[in-house]
Design a protein that fits this description.
- It is a single chain.
- It is built from 15 helices and 21 strands.
- β18 and β19 form a beta hairpin.
- The radius of gyration is 22 Å and the shape is globular.
- With 497 residues, the protein is an alpha+beta fold.
- It has one domain: 3-Layer(bba) Sandwich (FAD/NAD(P)-binding domain), CATH 3.50.50.60.
- Its EC number is 1.1.5.4.
- It catalyses: (S)-malate + a quinone = a quinol + oxaloacetate.
- Pathway: Carbohydrate metabolism; tricarboxylic acid cycle; oxaloacetate from (S)-malate (quinone route): step 1/1.
- Keywords: FAD, Flavoprotein, Oxidoreductase, Tricarboxylic acid cycle.
- It is an enzyme of class 1 (oxidoreductase).
């Protein structure tokens, strides 16, 4: 990877940001149009330094197996599995593509980026138990969630995750589901592996190069202004297509591009911290990722979870996140990011959210005022015998929640999840938002290719389906294909014995 620009200063494609989204798009384009020249500009000293980094990303491999916010209950108690089914199917696309990369020798050993880890959902109380039963029934009626287990027996739950039951009140009602097919994914490692494989194919990855401006030229190309983060030197390149996959930095750049599609969009930054332990004794008693329910007013990205992680060959446990706040849109961003993102076309959306999301504001203030002992008490809801000295605090990634204008009311609404913005002529696209993000990167980039390259997609389809067999097919209703894909990806990714 280089800080110098490639000799050919007018690439076909510019990818802004060196994260999992850009790496995925570079890999997909390498399959369907290997002759296209691609330049990647990353503002930091290395790729995958922000949201894709292992310590800035939960690494859950979001398949909706354990995340309760993907399965809301209605007033009658019935659980709607629609979003969970969609996310699970999207994650299957990712698994297939990663399997393809492994088979083609483009990522090295899958153990470098993916590990089997059971996914567990956990609630307490009679009301929580009723919800969990309904959720289990709703999900297991679909083949995508075959093999999921339910228990409200404390002894069984203690077998699943001993750490969470040790010292717990024996009279407390607990209920849980477990999916042993869950995974822990190191998206930072996966990003680096993909870029390492792409560079010999002519994908030029430039670090310490911050894109500061995007301007549409008369000939239809985009003039991309790049500033060297070390020397301060500015240069420009011209590209036929630009993807802004810069995490929280995507919104300001899309605003500078002045495409009509970004009008009305704003962003609200939320940072996070985790408690972490590397104690072998504690880690050995918790071999799973366990998700609970979010507090009232908390954003979905703040759902409490106790995760087994494997990073750089070392196992640890993370608990959190504890929400924080900063006006920066990236960990390496500027304190002016938020104020500079407020424009006349999104001011109404921003003010509307400020009025309607009072519960979120109250939640964030409460989180910011939390003492270390208060954070420990929250952890003890999961680990009753947790002790302060076993856990240290780490700062996680910065996320920017999407604010958009509701087309019906015209008011601003806070949008949780990810939002793909594409220009009408297909020459520019960008991704806003957070979870499930990285886990569904393949689905997001396939959608981008369909929207931005409709003239090519039919010709590309055979190659894409060779790499991703369920692409363009209804996996949730094709049991034979689902079985074949599960068997093949588990074998290739070494997720079975």
């Amino acid at each position: 990877m280089s800080t110098e620009l490639a000799p050919a200063t007018d690439p076909d494609v510019v990818l802004v940001g060196g994260g999992i989204m850009s790496a995925t798009l570079a890999s997909l384009l390498g399959i369907v149009s290997p002759e296209w020249s691609i330049a990647v500009f990353e503002s930091g000293p290395a790729v995958a330094g922000e949201s894709s980094d292992a310590w800035n990303n939960a690494g859950t491999g979001h398949a909706a197996l354990c995340e309760l916010n993907y399965t809301p209950a209605g007033p009658d108690g019935r659980v709607d599995p629609t979003k969970a089914i969609t996310i699970n199917e999207q994650f299957q696309l990712s698994r297939q593509f990663w399997s393809h990369l492994v088979r083609e020798g483009m990522t090295g050993s899958p153990k470098e980026f993916i590990t089997p880890v059971p996914h567990i959902s956990f609630v307490t109380g009679a009301e929580g138990r009723g919800y969990m039963r309904n959720r289990f029934t709703a999900l297991t009626s679909h083949a995508l969630f075959e093999g999921m287990e339910y228990t409200d027996d404390p002894a069984t739950f203690a077998e699943w995750v001993p750490l969470m039951m040790a010292g717990r009140d024996q009279g407390e009602v607990v209920a849980a589901t477990r999916a042993v097919a869950g995974t822990d994914v190191n998206f930072g490692a996966l990003t680096r592996l993909q870029f390492d494989a792409a560079e010999p194919r002519g994908v030029h990855v430039h670090v310490d190069q911050r894109v500061t401006d995007l301007e549409r030229m008369d000939d239809g190309r985009w003039k991309v202004t790049v500033k060297d983060s070390v020397s301060g030197e500015r240069r420009t390149v011209r590209a036929r297509f630009v993807f802004v996959g810069a995490g929280g930095g995507a919104l300001p750049l899309l605003q500078k591009a002045a495409i009509p599609e970004i009008r009305g969009f704003g962003g609200f930054p939320v940072s996070g911290e985790f408690l972490r332990t590397r104690s072998p004794e504690l880690v050995s008693q918790h071999q799973a990722k366990v998700y609970g329910q979010a507090a009232v007013g908390a954003p979905p990205m703040s759902v409490p979870h106790l995760d087994l992680r494997l990073v750089d060959g070392e196992y640890s446990l993370l608990f959190g996140p504890y929400a924080g706040w900063s006006p920066k849109f990236l960990k390496s961003g500027s304190m002016l990011d938020l104020p500079l993102s407020v424009k006349p076309n999104n001011l109404g959306s921003m003010l509307g959210v400020a009025r309607t999301e009072l519960a979120l504001t109250k939640y964030l203030i409460g989180e910011l005022l939390q003492s270390r002992s208060a954070r420990l008490r929250t952890l003890q809801g999961f680990v009753p015998q947790a002790e302060q000295g076993d856990w240290d605090i780490i700062t996680a990634g910065q996320r920017v929640q999407v604010i958009k204008r509701d087309p019906g009311s015209g008011k601003g609404v806070l949008q949780f999840g990810t939002e793909l913005i594409t220009g009408a002529d297909g020459t520019i696209a960008g991704l806003l938002g957070a979870s499930p993000g990285a886990s569904t990167a393949v689905s997001a980039m396939l959608t981008l290719m369909e929207r931005c390259f409709p003239q090519h997609i039919d010709a590309w389809r055979p190659a894409l389906q060779d790499a991703i067999p369920s692409y363009g097919r209804d996996l949730r209703n094709d049991l034979q294909l689902l079985t074949e894909i599960r068997t093949e990806t588990s074998k290739t990714l070494e997720l079975v014995g």
